[in-house]
Amino acid sequence: MGSGGNCHDYKFLIKRWRILSKQTGLKLRKFTEVDHFPCYEVASEHQDYNRGIYISAGIHGDEPAGTEALLSWAESRKDLLKEIPVVIYPCFNPWGLMENSRFDSQSRDLNRQWDKEDSSVITEVIKRTAGIRFSLAVNLHEDYDANGIYLYEPPRRGSPDKLSSEILAAGQKYVAIDSRKKIEGRWARNGIIRPAKSSLPVEGLPEAAFLQNSRADRTFVFETPSEKDLSLRVKAQIAMLDQAIQLLVSK
Ligand SMILES: [Zn+2]
Predict the structure, then answer these.
(1) Are 87 and 135 in contact (CB under 8 A)?
(2) Separation of 63 CA from ligand 1 center, angstroms?
(3) CA of 133 to the centre of ligand 1 (A)
(4) Top CATH class, 4-249
(5) Distance in Å, CA 93 to ligand 1 centroid
(6) pLDDT tens profile 239-248
(7) Residue 78: what are its φ and ψ, rounded to 5°?
């Protein structure tokens, strides 16, 4: 991975994605531009994305382990990327990443925009993924209040996903699981939050809830504690991503 000093450098991040895309045959496409920053999608070429994997990071700019981990994970899983159809969004909020800001330049939380057409980035992603049914969707996040790793399972039908505890167990090798009973005002059990549909944020629909509603069979949001060491947070995110995908692929 890059050094901590580079983790808010959007240009550098994309430069590395460009190199990786060339090495793996993935297609790096600019899909919109916001505040003079091009936004990119990295996807398998000529693929049917159904049953594939959607991964995104950097919707909140002050959560650099997500963007860094997604790239480091991809750099170390080149063979897998040639086999499984993937749609990857390396960073939804370039301005925020540069400014270390949760919000975009217009003070919007892009993770509350998935039922509106206010942000060109989110609107475009909703359009681009229309009609695709992914097997797995993962959003990489961080939380500065957290004392360990945790994850969200967005509302869905049926019983809780057994994958969740296995994902956290993998990440726990690097960062302990958040022990709080209540996280971000929601009940948590061993680091797993399963919000009810009725308790979704009133400000607007989060990405994960949107994906689970209409794009993916299973969706997870990974959270690492942003006060802890960056390299450990990145390793924890990578381990969790590997675990989620491995279990999925082996089934
Ligand atoms: Zn976040």
Answers:
(1) no
(2) 6
(3) 24
(4) alpha beta
(5) 11
(6) 999 999 987 7
(7) -65, -40
For the stretch 116-157, pLDDT in tens is 999 999 999 999 999 999 999 999 999 999 999 999 999 887
Domain ranges of the chain: 4-249
Tell me the CA–centroid distance for residue 29 and ligand 1, in Å. Answer: 24
Separation of CA 22 and ligand 1 centre (Å): 29
Q: How far is the centre of ligand 1, averaged over its atoms, from the C-alpha of 123 (Å)?
A: 19
- What is the Å distance from ligand 1's center to 109 Cα? 9
User: Containing H/E element for 216?
Assistant: strand 216-225
For residue 36, the CA-to-ligand 1 centroid distance in Å is: 23
Which of 31, 82, 66 is closest to 238 using CA atoms? 66
Q: 46 C-alpha vs ligand 1 centroid, how far in Å?
A: 31
Provide the CA 187 distance to its chain's centre, in angstroms. 22
Token duo for residue 43: 């996807």
- Rounded to the nearest whole angstrom, what is the distance from the C-alpha of residue 179 to the centroid of ligand 1? 19
Place of tokens 């919007």: 108
**What per-residue confidence (pLDDT) applies to 250?**
62
176 secondary structure, DSSP code: P
User: Tens of pLDDT along 149-191?
Assistant: 999 999 887 788 889 999 999 999 999 999 999 999 999 999 9
99: exposed, middle or buried (Cβ count in 10 Å: 0-12, 13-18, 19+): middle
β-strand 150-152 against 192-193: which pairing, if any? parallel
